[in-house]
Amino acid sequence: MTTIVVVHTGPVTVQPLKDQFNQQLPDVRMINIVDDSLLNDVRAAGHLTPEVTARLYTYMANAQAMGADYILNACSSVGEAVDVVRGMVRTPIMKIDETMAEEASRLGSRIGVVATVKTTLEPTVRLIRKKAQEAAREIAVVERVAEAAFEALLAGDTGRHDEILRQTILELAETVDVIVLAQVSMARLVPSLGTTRVPVLSSPQSGVAALREALSRAH
User: Fold this and answer.
1) 121 and 168 share a domain?
2) Model pTM above 0.85
3) Distances, alpha carbon 78 to alpha carbons 4, 43, 194, 199, in Å
4) What is the pLDDT of the chain when averaged over all its residues?
5) How many degrees, rounded to 5, is the angle at CA 14 between CA 12 and CA 16?
C-alpha cells in the first residue's frame, strides 16, 4: 500500500488534509506527524530558525524510515526548510502550497495574499514570486495579515475567525486579480464566500491533487 507521511506544525491542518485524502487518495495510507512547537517557535522568533529546520529534518527522516512513498509538508511557515531537507532525505517531499503558488502566478499579475500569521505570509509571498519568476511573469503582490482572526481561532472562537477573514478576503477581492489563502486552515472558508469577483485559491485541494498526479506518474 502507498504510504504518505504528512508533517504538520499544528493540529488545525490535520482534518482538512484528511478530508482531501479521503476524496482524492482514498486507498493511500496517511500517517500524520504533528508538532505544534514548530509553528510556535517560528512565530516567537518571527522567522524560520535552524532549530526548527533541524527538527523538521528529524521528522522527515523518520517518515523515510516509516517507508513513506512521499512526504507532504503541510505548513507554509516552514516551507523554506523543506528546500534544505530535500537534499538530506531520499524520499520525495512535496509542499502543500507549491501548486497553488504556480496557479496564482498564472491567473493574474496582481496577486492578493491573505494570512492570519505573519510568519506564514512572508514565505508564501516569496514562493509566489519564485514561481512567477520561473514562469517569466511580472507580478505585484498585495499582502493582508488578519492577526485578530488567528487569536480568535486559538481562543476557540471559529465564528469570529471566519468573519474577520471573510471581510478581509472580500475587501481585497476588489483590488486584485486572484487571492491566495496562505494557510491550510483557511480553506474551509471558501464555500461560504459565495461568488467572488476573483478566484480564491486554497492549498489543500490543489496540493493533494498534485500529490495524486505525482503518484500516478511514479506507478
Assistant:
1) yes
2) yes
3) 19, 11, 31, 25
4) 94
5) 85
